[in-house]
Design brief:
With about 170 residues, the protein is an all-alpha fold. It has two domains: about 1-70, no CATH class; about 75-170, Four Helix Bundle (Hemerythrin (Met), subunit A). About 65% of the residues lie in helices and about 0% in strands. The protein is built from seven helices and no strands.
Length: about 170
């Protein structure tokens, strides 16, 4: 779930804020998917009960710990990919929005790959002190960029849904 990526990355770099919480809250509160995420989602729901400011403060309070760097994974949209040749059946605006989701997802996965390489490089004992610091800086920048990209992807997906969460083309 991309909303959890936004939450984890923002919390890791301590830049959780109200607009981000407003973006991810409805997704998290309505989530019913993968059992691997259910415990995390349940804990997040409990924290949200304490109020927005408490939730935000908690996520911005712990200093980043390189040993706890999240290891993001790429996401896929197999249904979208499998039906790219039939996008012409949709109105032009829906086509544009679907293609935007695909484009944003590719950008997201490129940033994930960058972060994975930087994380793996932290174990390279042959790095000089300068190179190790540069890698740490690149990793921090990559995580910040991934958070921003994930937010954009969530927004792109949301533009395909009506107020009740149903696809616009139904």
């Amino acid at each position: 779930m991309i909303a959890l990526v936004v939450l984890k990355m923002r919390a890791h770099i301590q830049v959780m804020d109200q607009p981000t919480l407003d973006l991810i809250r409805p997704i998290i509160l309505q989530y019913t998917g993968d059992t691997d995420d259910v415990a995390f989602v349940g804990a997040t729901r409990k924290l949200l009960e304490a109020g927005d400011q408490t939730f935000i403060a908690l996520h911005n309070s712990e200093p980043p710990n390189p040993a706890k760097t999240p290891f993001p994974v790429p996401y896929e949209a197999p249904f979208l990919t499998a039906h790219l040749d039939t996008l012409g059946l949709f109105p032009l605006e829906i086509q544009r929005r679907l293609l935007r989701v695909g484009s944003d997802l590719r950008g997201f996965n490129e940033r994930v790959a960058f972060i994975q390489v930087a994380i793996n490089r932290t174990w390279d004992s042959s790095l000089s002190t300068i190179n190790r610091q540069q890698n740490a800086d690149n990793l921090a920048s990559g995580i910040k960029n991934l958070a921003t990209t994930a937010e954009g992807l969530v927004k792109a997906i949301n533009r395909l849904l009506d107020a009740s969460g149903r696809p616009l083309w139904k």
